[in-house]
Amino acid sequence: KMGRRKIKMEKVQDTNTKQVTFSKRRLGLFKKASELATLCNAEVGIVVFSPGNKPYSFGKPSFDLIAERFKNESEDSDGGEKSSGYNSRRGNGTRQEKKICKRLNSIIEEAEAEKKRGEKFQNRLESAGEERFNVPIEELTLEELKEFEAKMKKMHGGIQGNILQMKASSSLLFLSKDIK
Fold first, then answer.
1. How confident is the model over 48-79, as pLDDT tens digits?
2. What is the 3-state secondary structure (H, E, C) of 38-104?
3. Average pLDDT value for residue range 112-117
4. Residue at 80 is within a domain
5. Which of residues 35 and 156 earns the better pLDDT score?
6. pTM given for the model
7. What is the DSSP letter of 8?
8. Which end of the chain is flanked by fewer CB atoms within 10 Å, N or C?
């Protein structure tokens, strides 16, 4: 029985262990953030990127509300000028701001590329059946049905992956809508 034990704070090298560690600690971080929000009536927003560079967000009451408030307060503090959404009270805003802008611009580019991939995927989906699948399903042979099912499962997996990534990054894109 392993139970809880103290571990060294050093980078995890094994890919599988790293992913498990990230998942558990991300959930723990979000749980602590939720507790902080509940106990102190605080509004909390967190964005975390996985080792695979997937964004995960948490917000209470919601990440979008927190991000909008953060962005508006940042714009107000700059005398009404548009800002990247970052306003540091520690005096190192410029470097941090550039870093955040760079990352958000990268996410925007990824989202635009994903949108183009989605459009291509939609076009492929519309023409996926080719001519032999443009017949009533009752007229397909068992072999054709199995092939059709395999194609549909593959497309479904791709769609689910795209949906998950788009949901995770939508809150970050919300932050960057006025940056460009």
1. 888 888 888 889 988 888 888 887 776 666 55
2. HHHCCCEEEEEECCCCCEEEEEECCHHHHHHHHHHHHHHHCCCCCCCCCCCCCCCHHHHHHHHHHHH
3. 80
4. no
5. 35
6. 0.43
7. -
8. N
d(CA 81, CA 31): 35
- Residue 57: count other Cβ atoms within 10 Å of its Cβ: 22
Contacts for 7-15 with beta carbons within 8 Å, 24 or more apart? 15/51
Q: Give me the amino acid identity at 67.
A: A
Residue 148 belongs to what domain range? 137-179
Find out whether the peptide bond into 136 is cis, omega within 30 degrees of 0: no
In a domain, 54, yes or no: yes
Q: Identify the DSSP state of 136.
A: -
Q: Decide if 56 contacts 50 (C-beta within 8 A).
A: yes
**Domain containing residue 49: CATH number:** 3.40.1810.10
111 lies in some domain? no
Query: What pLDDT is stored for residue 76 in this prediction?
Result: 63
Based on the structure, what is the number of domains in the chain? 2
Residue-wise pLDDT for 132-167, tens only, equals 556 777 877 888 888 888 888 888 888 887 777 776
Q: What is the Cα Rg of the chain in Å?
A: 22
> Does 30 map to a domain?
yes
